[in-house]
Amino acid sequence: MATHKLLLLPGDGIGPEVMGEVKRLIDWLNSAGIAKFETDTGLVGGAAFDAHKVSISEGDMAKAMDADAVIFGAVGGPKWDAVPYEVRPEAGLLRLRKDLALFANLRPAVCYPALADASSLKREAIEGLDIVIVRELTGGVYFGEPKTITDLGNGQKRAIDTQVYDTYEIERIGRVAFELAKKRKNKVTSMEKRNVMKSGVLWNEVMTQVHKREYPDVTLEHQLADSGGMMLVKWPKQFDVIVTDNLFGDMLSDIAAMLTGSLGMLPSASLGEVDVKSKKRKALYEPVHGSAPDIAGKGLANPIAMISSFGMALRYSFDMGALADKVDAAIAAVLASGLRTADIKSEGTTAASTTQMGEAILKEL
Amino acid sequence: MATHKLLLLPGDGIGPEVMGEVKRLIDWLNSAGIAKFETDTGLVGGAAFDAHKVSISEGDMAKAMDADAVIFGAVGGPKWDAVPYEVRPEAGLLRLRKDLALFANLRPAVCYPALADASSLKREAIEGLDIVIVRELTGGVYFGEPKTITDLGNGQKRAIDTQVYDTYEIERIGRVAFELAKKRKNKVTSMEKRNVMKSGVLWNEVMTQVHKREYPDVTLEHQLADSGGMMLVKWPKQFDVIVTDNLFGDMLSDIAAMLTGSLGMLPSASLGEVDVKSKKRKALYEPVHGSAPDIAGKGLANPIAMISSFGMALRYSFDMGALADKVDAAIAAVLASGLRTADIKSEGTTAASTTQMGEAILKEL
Ligand SMILES: CC(C)[C@H](C(=O)O)[C@@H](O)C(=O)O
Ligand SMILES: CC(C)[C@H](C(=O)O)[C@@H](O)C(=O)O
């Protein structure tokens, strides 16, 4: 059995708590002889700042580069609101994405039937919802230069951010979306603002070319990002795979996640290019939810998104699709049994702490 | 009685139809001696392209500069998908905003009780919703330079858009938001992405200063634009006035509008600075909905957003608040009577065409 190297980066807020439940699962997989994971742990975000005055240390970056997959909790919180921009908690996550070249962020927005009523949307609008947002993650306004604040004198400053996209960046994220659609409902919707942004014009042009040249059998639709956002609210089930840039992806995937009523349940995968020789790809897995500092340390956090993110790691990094399916089934079974953390509690269900939920899922497995 | 100069720019798609109903209202106000409007009409968007190969002619721009208010329909449609970027329909609207220096875009998102069930959101989430999004309209990534596509050779192109904000731009839109909040529920929520964008850092800093210095009695909250979008979907009633930049405002205001279930009903105002001498300000009023090419020319369009936008003109440009209230009341009365255009039709209501709806509102007045 091959040994897989994992780097666990719990981060801040509820990060360590939900990571604890993944650790429990990994330990069990190891001791039951189902898989062989070698885990190491590092600091990221506010936790790294508190220890080393950086958002991630060079040592932990080296470990991340060396790992087969990074399992990431969450970063940030009011405690670090005043730290210098360069070492703010989020910088650690952004550096991981950039240095590991994790250009493809997959964010499923799935409505768990048991939770359909937790959504602010009507049941009929989201019941059975199963879409994936494919977000470009290493380009656009997140990393473009110049990115500066200049003092103009007279009490005036000027802030500049730069959105940059090259053809190859759009092509490779397009391919990820089309490949994914082929295994799903065969439809890709590309979203940009070509009516205002030159990057939107190029995005639209390149997606159209990739489609025509390489994926003519997949349906491709184009939508302006603002009306795409509207359509997501109005009738999300019209989508299958949505592909969009880094900033629109940030907004649209959060909105899609919230629609489902299952925010504490949703995983994400950030993937790099497949290496031609080793056939491996760098990858980071993290829950869609944030660090939720208000409930941190109270045993209230829902570990399902984190466990489910680890499930994506099994599937995308370690070719253990069958085991991933079992993890998904265990989550569904525990939900069906009526166990609920505080975020998804409703009448007639049984309250569970972070640990109780993690243990119940493990027992189911 | 003062004479007010209006420029009507119906534009494309359903624009001319809904503008027709405003024209009917204006004619009646004139003939009944209630007000004195002098109207002129121009071409914008695809209509201007078809006539002059531009998105708005210099002649019509001059008229717009000279008018007391511009009443704008909608622009765009698949017919002009392939026209050169510089003369695409949207360019006409963007030029009007920029050259008239209409930096403040007010977009109310109100849920009409009669239409609460048209929303994809649960009734309790949106019933009674009444928020305003104040969107910066002449800065940011819409107008920043460089904005280019460059050929890099080898089949590669590079697209660049630039987000630029200066202190004064953030200050003045902040003031609009705080002034508005003072007349409402006294709360402003500022949204940006300070964890990723330098413009977000400056935006946050300047809003905080303006608040402290000039509006300490108004509540100010800051939210990251992605979680702000989430909160808008989850529980929109927590907001009163949201202030945000041009691109986030584009996304968030469309989403807010769609939440209400009243998209065909929502007006907007785009305002310039108040001139110290004349006490006048340049202004453009337009419905939030687009040109809806699929239903254009069929008498199906809902004219309420357009009429209500004219109502905003009465209020903000001509100091006729009482008359604007009457227009709002007439719209509410007609809805209460059960009359509905196709977009808001539900069981037990009476179908109306664009014209029938316009006439009914006028009769009510
Ligand atoms: C934490 C933050 C930098 C990040 C982003 O903006 O990408 C987060 O919102 C996300 O979506 O993963
Ligand atoms: C038509 C388009 C240029 C415009 C925008 O992006 O501002 C529209 O979406 C709007 O919100 O008014």
Automatic annotation (TrEMBL), chains A, B:
Substrate binds at residues 97, 107, 135, 226. Binds 1 Mg(2+) or Mn(2+) ion per subunit. NAD(+) binds at residues 77-90, 290-302. The record marks 142, 193 as: Important for catalysis. The keyword Cytoplasm applies. Coiled coil: none annotated. This is 3-isopropylmalate dehydrogenase. It is found in: Cytoplasm. Pfam families: Iso_dh. It is an enzyme of class 1 (oxidoreductase). It comes from Bradyrhizobium iriomotense.
